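Following up on my earlier thread - several people asked me to post the actual chain instead of describing it. Fair enough. Here it is, all 213 residues.
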Amino acid sequence: MTHAAPWIDISLPIDGASIAWTGIAPPRLTHEAAIADGASVNVGRLSACLHTATHADAPCHIRTGALTIEAMPIDAYIGPARLVRHAGDGAVTRASLAAGGVGADGPARLLIASEQPFDGRRFPDRVPSIDPDAARWLVAIGVRLVGVDVPSIDPLRSKALAAHHALLGGGVVVLENLLLLGLPEGEYDLVALPLRIVGGDASPVRAVVRRRA
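Reply from S.P.:
Thanks for posting it. Predicted structure:
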């Protein structure tokens, strides 16, 4: 009898030390009611940027009037995925992806692990962004989801956000700030559903993977 591989949590925690972006206030968990104060239940309230920790971007993040997060196709966030590793701190290019086995046959969902992943607390000065040509190529070969372990698929100071426009504009869903440290390259099952936040430009996700046989 064979047993399924265990699920692995690849999402960053959300707490008072989490940083969504430089200059944005950290999350704040407060209490609407507390048993310690005589209430019958504990009731919490979370105030946080929608891009805190592991999250999914919606097209309206970079284009007014585009799809909001509750309108995104949920099946794109569930299914087989391939994890590849990107060496160095340069941009993720079409050539580097092809060297990692990404090609005309997919995968449908691509997770890119860098050598300098974001830990959710110390915001980086730069990240290995996705080259816009590589982003357009991923759209062309039918990739449905791209996930990275850094705060942005574009350079952190970019205003053009070319990779975001290419992927989100091409119908590819985007996950950022995944926790991929220590995971080997290969094939996985992925579940990373965004919350149904009406009008949201993003949503935190609880992302999990398991190795495929």
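Residues 50-211 form a domain with the Glucose Oxidase; domain 1 fold (CATH 3.50.30.50). That should answer part of your original question.
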